[in-house]
Amino acid sequence: MSAVWGRKVRYTIFGESHGVGIGIVIDGLPAGVMLDQTLIQREMARRAPGQSDLTTPRTETDAVSIISGLYQGRTDGSPLCAMIKNSDTRSADYAAEPRVFRPGHADYTGFIKYGGHNDPRGGGHFSGRLTAPLVFAGAIAKQLLTAAGISIGAHIAQIGDVKDTAFDPVAISETTLAELGKSGFPTLDLEAAASMRQAIHSAREQDDSVGGVIEAAVIGLPAGMGDPFFDSVESVLAHLLFSIPAVKGVEFGAGFALAGMRGHQANDSFVKHADKIQTATNNNGGILGGITSGMPLLLRAAFKPTPSIARQQNTLNANGDTEVLVIKGRHDPCIVPRAVPVVEAVIGLAIWDML
Ligand SMILES: Cc1cc2nc3c(=O)[nH]c(=O)nc-3n(C[C@H](O)[C@H](O)[C@H](O)COP(=O)(O)O)c2cc1C
Ligand SMILES: C=C(O[C@@H]1CC(C(=O)O)=C[C@@H](OP(=O)(O)O)[C@H]1O)C(=O)O
């Protein structure tokens, strides 16, 4: 299993959704960092399940126990291991024998790859629950990046066909990112937020789910970070963003819209602002040749609708027999609101690794 990532810092995630717990081992953090426990708890709470009627009713506190790597509140240079307990499991929802493959989930592919030995309860290791340790690691990365003058923030850019205002690609402020971080349902346009909530309620009422898009920004990055080709800033970020369950699309700057532009529209002209080299527009999302330009880094991640829906679906079981599936479990009608801190977290890991 590809549960290890990172070059300067190595991150190893472990656990299953209905096992004893989940967690992460982080090897390579600088020693002597006093961890910001308030920031860690705030980030964990932003992602935790059971927050409102817009999320899965499964309730987990997602309290983090740090069992190694910390001495007197500071990182001690040894691997930092953090554990999060699973408590509100309801494994009977996943007890069907032979196993029934949920359309859109990893039940079938996990079964094939691991010969039926994978833990099917709550999606096992494939569960979105494994993003909790990522958010923990992301909080540490954010703390380190803040000290370097770098801020990360995100908003819900789209739910179904309801869209929020996009970030100003040139002039995103630290204040805007900080305000978004305080919101349980971060959008730039409050009216859009109300329509998005309505779209999620409506999908749930129809025994269905809905997808969406998260737009994220990183400001304060120096020009010159990253490498061409295989380790381009886009490649490293996309690797981590596609590691988030349910992400099916990633774009940088104007992204796919660039394909429909002419060169004179797409090119970002260089201009001087108070002796600093900038660009007048930012269609390239702060990255040129795989290297940061010093402009805000902008990306968007598309999430598919939650696969586990209450509506009747046709499928197959592990014996290959037809089944009519009606999922009775507890699921997010939309993944996007809880995934905002996850997207920010993996961006934090990627940037800290590249800086
Ligand atoms: C924060 C988060 C919460 C999720 N909640 C659910 C859920 O409640 N029900 C579900 O079926 N899938 C949920 N997912 C998505 C599945 O885990 C994911 O679709 C599945 O593992 C298959 O992976 P893929 O969609 O990347 O192919 C969630 C994902 C994330 C990131
Ligand atoms: C537990 C979390 O989300 C879970 C992610 C998930 C999935 O299939 O990804 C399915 C659901 O699991 P269960 O059926 O056990 O309730 C969600 O509740 C979490 O995010 O912490």
UniProtKB/TrEMBL annotation:
<keyword id="KW-0456">Lyase</keyword>
<dbReference type="GO" id="GO:0004107">
    <property type="term" value="F:chorismate synthase activity"/>
</dbReference>
<dbReference type="GO" id="GO:0009423">
    <property type="term" value="P:chorismate biosynthetic process"/>
</dbReference>
<keyword id="KW-0274">FAD</keyword>
<keyword id="KW-0057">Aromatic amino acid biosynthesis</keyword>
<keyword id="KW-0288">FMN</keyword>
<comment type="similarity">
    <text>Belongs to the chorismate synthase family.</text>
</comment>
<keyword id="KW-0028">Amino-acid biosynthesis</keyword>
<feature type="binding site">
    <location>
        <position position="47"/>
    </location>
    <ligand>
        <name>NADP(+)</name>
    </ligand>
</feature>
<dbReference type="GO" id="GO:0009073">
    <property type="term" value="P:aromatic amino acid family biosynthetic process"/>
</dbReference>
<dbReference type="InterPro" id="IPR000453">
    <property type="entry name" value="Chorismate_synth"/>
</dbReference>
<comment type="pathway">
    <text>Metabolic intermediate biosynthesis; chorismate biosynthesis; chorismate from D-erythrose 4-phosphate and phosphoenolpyruvate: step 7/7.</text>
</comment>
<dbReference type="Pfam" id="PF01264">
    <property type="entry name" value="Chorismate_synt"/>
</dbReference>
<comment type="subunit">
    <text>Homotetramer.</text>
</comment>
<dbReference type="InterPro" id="IPR020541">
    <property type="entry name" value="Chorismate_synthase_CS"/>
</dbReference>
<feature type="binding site">
    <location>
        <position position="289"/>
    </location>
    <ligand>
        <name>FMN</name>
    </ligand>
</feature>
<dbReference type="GO" id="GO:0010181">
    <property type="term" value="F:FMN binding"/>
</dbReference>
<dbReference type="InterPro" id="IPR035904">
    <property type="entry name" value="Chorismate_synth_AroC_sf"/>
</dbReference>
<feature type="binding site">
    <location>
        <position position="330"/>
    </location>
    <ligand>
        <name>FMN</name>
    </ligand>
</feature>
<feature type="binding site">
    <location>
        <begin position="304"/>
        <end position="308"/>
    </location>
    <ligand>
        <name>FMN</name>
    </ligand>
</feature>
<protein>
    <recommendedName>
        <fullName>Chorismate synthase</fullName>
        <ecNumber>4.2.3.5</ecNumber>
    </recommendedName>
</protein>
<keyword id="KW-0285">Flavoprotein</keyword>
<feature type="binding site">
    <location>
        <begin position="125"/>
        <end position="127"/>
    </location>
    <ligand>
        <name>FMN</name>
    </ligand>
</feature>
<dbReference type="GO" id="GO:0005829">
    <property type="term" value="C:cytosol"/>
</dbReference>
<keyword id="KW-0521">NADP</keyword>
<comment type="function">
    <text>This reaction introduces a second double bond into the aromatic ring system.</text>
</comment>
<dbReference type="GO" id="GO:0008652">
    <property type="term" value="P:amino acid biosynthetic process"/>
</dbReference>
